[in-house]
Specification:
It holds the Pfam family CBFD_NFYB_HMF. It is built from 7 helices and no strands. By secondary structure, it is an all-alpha fold.
Length: about 140
């Protein structure tokens, strides 16, 4: 099985050295990639998210998730696997939020995450736009 990098950036089939036309196209592509990366400085790399997700040892209790789901009158029976899947999705979401908060705390030169760092992560990360209203009540991070 090929690595992800090999699939994303395949080598030209004609050998190790790209032709001059391919080389200039690659330079333009890399420049575009770097400009995109500089615009998305608040984005946490996928490798960091996957690494933090693999370290998760605790799980949300499926019975409690099922109870919360069934508290909605519109939901009837819940399949056995559903609360487990919802719990894993919640773990992934929390890992992403914590990693983004860690980035904000490191920018501030602090080793302890506070509510203001979580607020900054929510405000600066497009993925968490739906939480902006929920974090408005917390003080903004000091710059």
């Amino acid at each position: 099985m090929s690595s992800i990098n090999a699939l994303i950036n395949p080598m030209p089939s004609g050998g190790n050295e790209p032709s001059p036309a391919e080389g200039s196209a690659k330079v333009e592509e890399q420049t575009a990639f770097e400009s995109t990366q500089s615009e998305n400085t608040n984005k946490v790399p996928q490798e960091v998210i996957l690494e933090s997700f693999e370290r998760i040892k605790t799980h949300f209790p499926a019975a409690r998730i099922k109870k919360i789901m069934q508290s909605d009158e519109d939901i009837g029976k819940v399949a056995q696997a559903t609360p487990v899947i919802v719990g894993r999705a919640l773990e992934i979401f929390m890992a992403n939020l914590v990693e983004a908060s860690v980035v904000e705390a490191k920018k501030a030169g602090v080793r302890k995450i506070s509510a203001s760092h979580i607020r900054s992560a929510v405000e600066n990360t497009e993925q968490f736009d739906f939480l902006v209203d929920a974090v408005e009540k917390y003080p903004p991070a000091e710059s």
